[in-house]
Amino acid sequence: MRQKLCLVIMLVLCLSFSGQAESADKIVTLANIEYPPFAGEKLKNGGFLSEIQTEAFKRSGYTVNYEWVPWARGLKGAKRGVYDGLCVAWYRPEREEWFIFSNPLPASEIVFFKRRGVDILFDGDYTKLQPYSIGVVRGYANPPEFDKVKHMLKVEEVPKDSVNIKKLIRGRLDLILVDKYLAQYIISTEMIGFSDAVEPIKPVLKKDINYIMFSKKADGVKEKVDAFNKGLEELEKEGTVEEILRKHGF
Fold this sequence. Notes:
Elements: H1 2-25, E1 27-32, H2 48-59, E2 63-68, H3 71-80, E3 85-90, E4 99-101, E5 105-115, E6 133-137, H4 144-149, E7 154-158, H5 161-169, E8 175-179, H6 180-190, E9 198-215, H7 221-238, H8 240-247
Parallel strand pairs: 1-2, 1-3, 6-7, 6-8
Antiparallel strand pairs: 3-9, 4-9, 5-8, 5-9
Helix pairs in contact: 2-7
């Protein structure tokens, strides 16, 4: 009887340890950064990109742990394999030395915003915008074609996007260059009541697709990349990506 009891206990312990090991193998640790509204520690579910990533991994049986760190620290740690990857990044050829890029996530889209009701059309020819005052943020990477001719335009630089949006609403600027999602987020959180005051103009001027950069030095990186991409494909087919964006107000 005692021998049977010992065998049962050993079997239970083995199954327990096996389950713990399997669970440990199904955890992904990602460096995440403050990049509202895409990602942010205080945002709902960490921002819409974080929520998409969490749900995509969940579809493949993985749990995600986010460590909120500055960009430079996250990049350095991911290169070394301290983290399995970095949550929010744009593709750059030189980064392929260190990282494997996931399937594409929702992109950052740079557009012109104008006041609603003001008739300004844009067909892609920046030189036709000479009559208008245009706000940009100092130090930002603008669309290359815009930079080529901005010396011919009435361009005003400010320290941050919220300043430009306020100036646009007040009629002190005719157009501003801004990320579409960021503008909508700033208005909804800092300028409540003015959501109908401004609107984006087509076309999109610059598009930077967001990715997870998976560290080539992370354990089991190939399996984690495949698991994420598989889960993301399922979310896209189900329409869940669009549902998450709508839930976050986009």
